[in-house]
């Protein structure tokens, strides 16, 4: 997930600029998990990264305990049901411009889909008793916030190839992500 975030930040300089507007006023001793949890744009970048490149492409299978009807389809008892995160997160019924990286979708009320269906459909860590323990105790979010905050504060980055796309191998989880960026200490000029 962090590789995907670094890629999209390097690909979208406005995202880096907006993150810095939020992070730069903080003193180093203010960069804590609690403080970062309050920063709307940082959290929107994380949510958008999780939507665009979910850590689990499919949620764990669940079994129907009884016959149930969902959306006009009958799911018989004992049927395995799998939620395809990747497909849902790229579905125009739930997300405006689903193939675009737009952190603002999580903040701006004009993104009506994201404020209604999208919020319900965005479950990168699953939900309920089977949700990811990292989400339940906030460990995954804490790690993402802290790493991104320190990285954005310390580095400028550009894509090695501005026309490149984010590549990864598809397994049950997103793995072996490839991201070619050049990172430089912040405020250093580069060619």
Task: Describe this protein's structure.
It comes from Neolecta irregularis (strain DAH-3). Its cofactor is heme. InterPro entries: Cyt_P450, Cyt_P450_CS, Cyt_P450_E_grp-I, Cyt_P450_sf, Cytochrome_P450_monoxygenase. Heme binds at residue 132. The chain has 8 helices and 8 strands, in the order ααααββββααααββββ. The chain is α+β, with helices and mostly antiparallel strands and 191 residues long. The strands form 4 sheets. Strands 1-4 form a two-stranded antiparallel ribbon. The longest helix has 16 residues, at 139-154. The two termini are 28 Å apart.
Topology:
Blueprint: H1 2-11, H2 13-23, H3 33-37, H4 40-52, E1 62-63, E2 68-70, E3 73-75, E4 80-81, H5 85-89, H6 112-121, H7 133-136, H8 139-154, E5 155-159, E6 167-170, E7 174-178, E8 181-185
Question: Which properties best describe this structure?
Answer:
Cytochrome p450, two-stranded antiparallel ribbon, 39% helix, two-stranded antiparallel sheet, single chain, 8 helices, alpha+beta
């Amino acid at each position: 997930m962090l590789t995907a975030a670094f890629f999209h930040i390097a690909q979208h300089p406005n995202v880096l600029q907006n993150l810095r507007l939020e992070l730069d006023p903080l003193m180093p001793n203010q960069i804590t998990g609690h403080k970062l949890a309050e920063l709307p744009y940082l959290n929107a970048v994380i949510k958008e990264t999780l939507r665009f490149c979910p850590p689990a492409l499919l949620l764990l299978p669940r079994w129907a305990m009884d016959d149930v009807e969902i959306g006009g389809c009958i799911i018989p008892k004992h049927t395995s049901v799998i939620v395809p995160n990747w497909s849902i997160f790229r579905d125009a019924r739930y997300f405006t411009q689903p193939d675009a990286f737009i952190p603002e979708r999580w903040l701006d009320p004009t993104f009506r889909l994201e404020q209604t269906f999208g919020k319900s459909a965005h479950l990168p860590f699953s939900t309920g008793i089977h949700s990811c323990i990292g989400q339940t105790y906030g460990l995954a979010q804490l790690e993402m916030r802290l790493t991104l905050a320190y990285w954005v504060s310390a580095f400028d980055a550009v894509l090695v190839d501005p026309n490149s796309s984010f590549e990864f191998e598809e397994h049950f989880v997103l793995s072996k992500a490839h991201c070619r960026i050049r990172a430089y200490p912040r405020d250093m000029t580069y060619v």
